[in-house]
Design a protein that fits this description.
single chain, alpha/beta, Rossmann fold, Alpha-Beta Plaits, binds adenosine-5'-diphosphate, binds magnesium ion
């Protein structure tokens, strides 16, 4: 089952929170929706789940237009909101029974609630009131609530925020497991989260999609207005000025008197090879250094 976002723009009064956003996510993949705070992630998720209307654009869940098929869409989606509205006075089971009632699970209700309590690891705390739970367990209740009606699509807004490291590992494992069968879109402002659980990443910044691709491919993605880093090693000693003189070189960082890292506006490996030949130099090493996801993200979302 897929979720398709088509040219969605959202204004809050004078402020544009989403700017012509389009993407599709499909079944059997965990997609990370990565962006700094204020990028528009929660807004996008509220729009996908039909809790907020877009100013323009369309959303399709399993081919159904969210505007015209809200109830059908809600049946297919499990949503963990950013500020998970739980009822502190309710017991875990009481709350999940109540949610199950909303989905009209009928006679399956009791066994399904039990199954979900087990799946989300709530068993040890199941006798407690929600208000008495730690943040990690409250987040599990939120996930349980999202999973109860066994939806095909999961929309999880910062599912690990506020959890301690052990809880983070557990929740990530659970999401990865769920991602094998379902369509999962999770938002995060943490690159490591994407590296840990996502096959694909969509980077959003100031309401615009600025990158979209396989997590591994994105590492090699060279962002716009960016630099390329080239590692060179010559057999002979040369001066940095000789390299600075090459076109498209913006910076030469010497690592010794024959090893240099170059910052360039383009991939100029071919020109460097030419240069070495013309100067009768022996080039021992010449390679393009790929950035890691964190560098790509930092650069894509940096100011100016
Ligand atoms: P993220 O989840 O990526 O942190 P949000 O979608 O919450 O981003 O917010 C995107 C932008 O829209 C932010 O600048 C935020 O201040 C603004 N915003 C969010 N919700 C509202 C609202 N209800 N009214 C006005 N502005 C809002
Ligand atoms: Mg948010």
């Amino acid at each position: 089952m897929s979720v398709t976002v088509k040219d969605v723009t959202k204004w809050y009064g004078e402020q544009k929170a989403l700017d012509h956003v389009s993407f599709t996510v499909s079944r059997g993949e965990v997609t990370g929706f990565l962006g700094p705070n204020g990028a528009g992630k929660s807004t996008m998720m509220k729009i996908i789940t039909g809790f907020l209307p877009p100013s323009s654009g369309e959303i399709f869940v399993d081919g159904l237009d969210v505007r015209n098929h809200l109830l059908e869409v809600r049946k297919r989606i499990g949503y963990l909101p950013e500020h998970n509205p739980l009822y502190p006075e309710m017991y875990i089971r009481e709350y999940l029974n109540y949610v199950a009632g909303l989905y009209a699970l009928g006679t399956r209700k009791k066994s399904r609630v039990q199954e979900i309590i087990r799946l989300t690891g709530l068993e040890p705390e199941q006798h407690k009131k929600i208000g008495a739970l730690s943040k990690g367990y409250r987040q599990r209740v939120g996930l349980a609530q999202a999973l109860l009606h066994n939806p095909e699509v999961l929309i999880l807004d910062e599912p690990t925020s506020g959890l301690d490291p052990n809880q983070i590992v557990e929740i990530r494992e659970l999401i990865k497991h769920l991602g094998k069968e379902k369509t999962v879109l999770l938002s995060t402002h943490i690159m490591q989260e994407v590296e840990a659980i996502c096959e694909r990443v969509i980077i959003i910044h100031k309401g615009k999609i600025i990158a979209d691709g396989a997590e591994k491919a994105l590492v090699n993605l060279q962002p716009k207005q960016s630099w390329f880093t080239i590692y060179t090693e010559f057999k002979e000693t040369i001066s940095p000025e000789q390299l600075t003189a090459l076109s498209h070189v913006t910076e030469v960082i010497p690592q010794g008197n024959h090893i240099f890292t170059l910052r360039c506006e383009k991939d100029i490996r071919e020109q460097i090879f030419q240069f070495a030949r013309e100067q009768s130099l022996t080039l021992l090493s010449l390679s393009l250094i790929s950035q890691n996801l964190e560098e790509v993200f930092r650069e894509l979302t940096s100011e100016g």
